Amino acid sequence: MTGTLGAAVFAYLATRRQAIDQGKVDHEKTLRTERRDAYLSLIRAAEPVDQALHIVAHRDNLPGLSMASAPDDAVLTAAIEELGTAAHGVYRAHAQIGLVGPKRVSDRAIEVWASIRDLRAFLEAAKRGDVPPEDYHDGCSEAVDYVERERTRFAQSARAVLALPPGATENAE
């Protein structure tokens, strides 16, 4: 009888442990999916930045112009509007990323938002005439580089989290 009782207790504990382990695996899968979706929402929200960069930096739609001088008011207005749309969407996505984490990816997301706002503020200053023509190129290059650097850092941080093997998810960070 003792052997039967011991076997029953052992079977119960093994079944309970298996259920707990399966619950952890299911939670990690759900969290990974939620993180991926949140990270992708930020990437999608930042897409208007590409259009703005093409307008003010690359000048794809304006043959013969370079980044050496500010474009006209209509072009700056269009870029500023694109950046405003992107900043709003990225900020909303950051809130979602703050919920699913980890903190290091959330921190990178807020830097993407800040870089977009900085570029927008620079273009607004250029539109008001507060940026001397000889400073436009360097100021624009610096602002564009900041945006591109932070978007890259966000993508690298997000990719590192999503590449973690099962069981290594950074839940608490």
General description of the model:
The protein has 173 residues and is mainly alpha-helical. It has one domain (35-162). It contains 5 helices and no strands. The chain has helices at residues 2-45, 47-58, 73-100, 103-128, 133-162. Helix 1 (2-45) runs antiparallel to helix 3, helix 1 (2-45) runs antiparallel to helix 5 and helix 2 (47-58) packs antiparallel against helix 3. The chain starts with a helix and ends in an 11-residue tail after the last helix. The model has no long low-confidence stretch (mean pLDDT 85).
**Rg, nearest Å:** 24 Å
Gross morphology is rod-shaped
Query: How many extended strands?
Result: 0
List segments where confidence is low: pLDDT < 50 over at least 5 consecutive residues.
none
So how many helices? 5
Order of helices and strands: HHHHH
Strand residues, percent: under 5%
Count of all domains: 1
Largest sheet: none
- Percent of residues in helices comes to over 70%
| Integer average pLDDT | 85
Class from helix and strand fractions: mainly alpha
> Roughly how many Å apart are the termini?
49 Å
Task: Outline the fold blueprint.
Elements: H1 2-45, H2 47-58, H3 73-100, H4 103-128, H5 133-162
Helix pairs in contact: 1-3, 1-5, 2-3, 3-4, 4-5
Summary keywords:
single chain; 173 residues; mainly alpha; 81% helix; 0% strand; rod-shaped
Give a short overview.
The protein has helices spanning 2-45, 47-58, 73-100, 103-128, 133-162. It has 173 residues and is an all-alpha fold. Helix 2 (47-58) runs antiparallel to helix 3.
